[in-house]
Write a structure and sequence with these properties.
- This protein is of the alpha/beta class and 308 residues long.
- It folds into 2 domains: 4-236, Aldolase class I (TIM Barrel, Alpha-Beta Barrel); 241-305, Arc Repressor Mutant, subunit A (Orthogonal Bundle).
- It has 10 helices and 12 strands.
- It has helices spanning 52-65, 85-95, 112-118, 133-140, 148-161, 180-193, 217-227, 241-260, 265-272, 276-288, and strands at 4-10, 14-20, 26-27, 41-42, 70-74, 100-103, 123-125, 165-172, 197-202, 232-233, 292-297, 300-305.
- An 8-stranded mixed β-sheet has the order 1-2-5-6-7-8-9-10. Strands 3-4 form a two-stranded parallel sheet. It has a two-stranded antiparallel ribbon with strand order 11-12.
- α2 (85-95) runs parallel beside α3 and α9 (265-272) packs across α10 (276-288).
- The chain is globular and about 50 Å long.
- The chain starts with a strand and ends with a strand.
- Bound molecules: iron/sulfur cluster (SF4).
Length: 308
């Protein structure tokens, strides 16, 4: 399975079958909080990657053998950079009634071709982390050629014409976008964009830059209330007992491996045949429970069992 991973139990989406359309790690941004590490290929040039027939075959194989609530185009960077995303969404929709979601940073929605491609999804979740260009440069570190105002206009015009659900995700980073002024600016953009839902998130470790720190729960709740009374905190969305059980199983597989020797995300992913994104998710859970620790060795981040 080269392109499809999971289904990953997701707080927001249920059992989400991930579809990765890019080589690791290709993105139009290089966010300081990125859980995948620094962007190695920063670009705004769309390209074809992967064989569409094989990707569709992988998806069909998975949905025929596992319970899947949603098929999510996300993966190792910005999925709209793959110029086949529109064709793939269309072909998935011909084969199944399972809803299709796109997790995007929203940077390219101002381009007609990108907007047209992802309009075919049922749910689009773009990000908006800042209220002005200065913070955009500091937090998202966009590719040269991307303008903050174009990005915001792209979000607003896509939302106006999109028939599916449009949820806006805001990642809060301590000291970067949590000042009263910044929050007022973000709120004003959210009011213009008018998403169906606002979801607040904060940094999970380890981010691309170690100075990208989370805001406290109290602060996040306060910000959510200012931006939108109905805004949700992603980590507070409830998980069903079934999903919790599934998560526990995968968590245990990773824990068993780390008890034997320290590993990088890539090593865990390839040994257990789990996608990097999925591994990162379970490592965050283990880290929150203080079961593992991290150590930088030769420029690579290793995870090891805390009690070793
Ligand atoms: S967080 Fe998303 S948008 Fe930002 S660098 Fe990582 S993959 Fe790209």
């Amino acid at each position: 399975m080269k392109h499809v991973f999971g289904p990953v139990p997701s707080r927001r989406l249920g059992r989400s079958l991930g579809v990765d359309l890019l080589p690791f790690k290709t993105c139009s941004y290089d966010c300081i909080y990125c859980q995948l590490g620094r962007t190695t290929d920063k670009t705004i040039n769309r390209f074809a990657w992967g064989n569409c027939d094989l990707i569709i075959k992988e998806i069909i194989q998975e949905i025929n053998s596992k319970k899947v609530d949603i098929i999510t185009f996300s993966g190792s960077g910005e999925p709209t950079l793959n110029e086949n995303i529109g064709t793939l969404i269309e072909r998935v929709r011909e084969k199944t009634d399972i809803p299709v979601a796109v997790l995007t940073n929203g940077s390219l929605l101002f381009l007609d071709e990108v907007s047209r491609d992802i309009r075919k999804a049922d749910l689009v979740i773009p990000s908006l982390d800042c209220g002005n260009d200065k913070s955009f440069q500091r937090i998202n570190r966009p590719c040269k050629g991307l303008e903050f105002t174009d990005m915001v206009k792209g979000l607003a015009s896509f939302q106006r014409s999109f028939k599916g659900d449009f949820w806006l995700e805001i990642m809060m980073v301590k000291g970067f976008n949590d000042s009263p002024r910044e929050i007022r600016e973000i709120k004003s953009l959210v009011d213009q964009i008018k998403p169906d839902k606002v979801q607040l998130n904060t940094v999970s470790r380890p981010p691309a830059e170690n100075y990208a720190a989370p805001v406290s729960s109290e602060k996040a709740l306060e910000i959510a209330g200012i931006i939108d009374q109905k805004a949700e905190m992603i980590r507070d969305i409830e998980l069903s007992p079934e999903l919790l059980e599934e998560m526990e199983k995968n968590e245990n597989r990773i824990a068993e491996m780390l008890k034997r020797r320290p590993c990088t995300v890539r090593q865990i992913a390839s040994s257990l045949s789990i996608h990097e994104n999925e591994v990162v998710k379970y490592l965050q859970i283990l880290e929150k429970k203080s079961k593992i620790k991290t150590k930088n060795f030769g420029g690579e981040l290793f995870y090891s069992w805390e009690l070793q």
